[in-house]
Fold this sequence. Notes:
The protein contains six helices and six strands, in the order βααβαβαβαββα. The chain is an alpha/beta fold. The mean pLDDT is about 95.
Amino acid sequence: MQVLLIRHGRAESPDPKAPNGKADDLRKLTADGKKRMRRTARGLPFICPKLDAIAHSPLPRAAQTAEIVAAAYKDAGADVPLVELRELSPGKRSALALAWLQNQAPGASIALVGHEPMLSRCAGLLVAGRERRLVEMKKGAACLIDFPGLVAAGKGLLQTLVQPRMLRKLR
């Protein structure tokens, strides 16, 4: 199995008092965030050519990012289904995402679109077996982890961590 961790794009301010600020669970991608994410997502098929599903947090900014990623894969010739996954919500433990992954087809390639610091902790759990920040993921970054055998904590191999600037150059 391959797991592609993707952090959502730039979103509205989390401060309800700021211009365009909203409560965290209502924040959407900004117009610039959508534009950047579309350019960034075009590079994803170069690091992970095949995706069987894109699971995303139920928060709007992650759902919008997942839609943009699905559109990039569609442009590359693949129709990838989207799955809303509560286990990717901010504040959730990475072990919940791992349990969900363990119920997927063994040879599948799955993208998980979510939030920091959960995604970095998830990378730590998948690669090092501990729910600790293993990588730093900027908004729009992607981290590819390969499981040569069964999906289990500490059994993943970190293939690549690509920040958005580099993904934009891959198209």
